[in-house]
Amino acid sequence: MTSPSLLQDPLLRPVPTLEGHKVLGKTVLLERLGEGGAGVVYRGWHLNFRIVVAVKVLRPELAADADYVARFHREAHATLQITHQNVVRAHDLEERDGLHFLVMEYVDGLSARQWIHRRGRMSVDQALTALAGAAAGLAEAHTHGLVHQDVKPSNLLLARSGRVKVADLGLVGPAVDSDDEAAAAARRRVFGTPQYMAPEQWDGAPPQPSADVWALGACAYYLLTGRHGLPKVAKGELRRLVRQEPFPTIGGVVRARPGFGDLLERCVDRDPARRFTDATALHQALLALGGVDEALLRDPDFAPGGEPVGLPANEVLARIDDQRRRRPGPAAVSAAAAPRPKVRAAPARSSAAPIVVVVLLVAAAVIVVLLRSQG
User: Which domains does the chain have, with CATH numbers?
Assistant: First the structure.
């Protein structure tokens, strides 16, 4: 059965319970993975795809904002066009039971942040491999004209197989030129996580791939030292540091891989023009250093295949799927719930009218008989 925490989850209150499991759209929810400012992420089993998926549900308070929902849908559709081994793939975008949610690839592993907390800082070649994987994924987004805008350790997922995947494209937006209308709108918005925002992001500059490059450089510092490159201070002070002070150097840490230190310093240069232009250029530079090997990040206990953890029995899934299919869809529910138009009833006919007619006919017949008898 679904864990009690899901059955009691207030966000899932409108979601139907079938065979003891919360079933959102086509997905049987299994556990709550985490939450962020925009929504909550669950692990589940997709009844149509027959795979384990991650489901990101938009918070109701944000779903009530029509502009935010429109943006959520635009960005979800943008991520649906990205198919790359180093990007968490989006499968479907749905709205059901009053909730907006995105069905995504589930990555069995740890975020880079979790990795550091549990295993300590990475070796030079482990960090190099992680950055190369992340750069490859971001390069695909940049090729599609999209900028992530929120690259940080918790959005870099390390699968147990050793593959790195870029996650949570929740702030992804189109790269824009500095003289178009979209850029003007972009300047009015400040997106991202403060300690991983490029200097120009603090000014609301239009999103450019070089901002993602800066964030990856900041991630490298975290992977190699176990510490954030920028302190957790008030936003005003952090903005001053980012815009006026050079990013901390780690040349000594990466001395074992010649050229790595210079590459990272170029990533976090305050001037976007002096950085790598996009993640494609950065990825090529990382590969040129040598030492990239996914085996360095692989979980020692990893074994391909195997049954998903916590999955209901096949017969239970079959009953859930049957019940789900019998449920009316959103359109049918709306039609059934819609008030039927009132039809004005025709005025009731008086039951006395037929009796009067009969009496008159009988009286006429009697008169005719009397007249004939007198004649």
Answer: 4-106 (3.30.200.20), 109-297 (1.10.510.10)
